[in-house]
Amino acid sequence: MTTNQNSTEMLRSEILSEVQKECEEIITNAKRQAEIFLAGIDKEKERIRQEHIDSANAEATHRSDLILSTVPVETGRHRAARIEALLRTVYDEVRERLIARDGIQYRETIISLAFDAIMHMDGDTFVLKLSGADYDMFSDSIIEEIAHRVGRPVNISIIQEPSISDGGVIVEDKDARQVWDNTLLKRLERLWPALRRYIAVQASFIPKTGSAGGNQ
What we know:
This protein has 5 helices and 4 strands. The chain has 2 domains: 1-103; 105-184, 2-Layer Sandwich (hypothetical protein PF0899 fold). It has a 4-stranded mixed sheet with strand order 2-1-3-4. Residues 210-216 have low confidence and may be disordered. It is of the alpha+beta class. The protein is rod-shaped. α1 crosses α5 (184-202). Helices cover 67% and strands 11% of the residues. It has helices at residues 3-99, 106-119, 132-138, 143-150, 184-202; strands at 125-130, 155-160, 168-173, 179-183. The longest helix is centred in the N-terminal third of the chain and has 97 residues, at 3-99.
């Protein structure tokens, strides 16, 4: 081997060695970058996963708060509905007892209802309308007692009224410009708001504050 050949071989070896060294550095660099990149991906994946978890937890908490916030409202609604149903049962029972005249002195009731109606009206001449059955039962026998209770001079007559089926009395003045419906169920209907409140207070359904309203 000549001197030139030796020099060429040495140069080739040095070049190959340098190239190999650079290749190794490139590969090492690439591996390092790949590791950094993969680590970044893992961190991003973890961040995204945590964000989803936090978002889901926040949504669950929000939904839970919404549900819990409706509990008092729903409880109040169910309680109010139950109370209303109980009061309606009371109303229906009172209504049926009135229709059946259960527990009331009916003659006295008719007199009181007629007196109450006249005291709400002006004038001195009145017509009492009774159902056919009540007319046959009482006729003119209650006129004097009603007039006595009124305490002022009044003229009272009694007629039959076919539309009255639930008992009680309708009172009109002589020109029918004033009409006071004191049939039993109409009377109950007007009294019910006050009675309803009274019953609710006594049963502790509502606080004992204020006063019972309702027209009589």
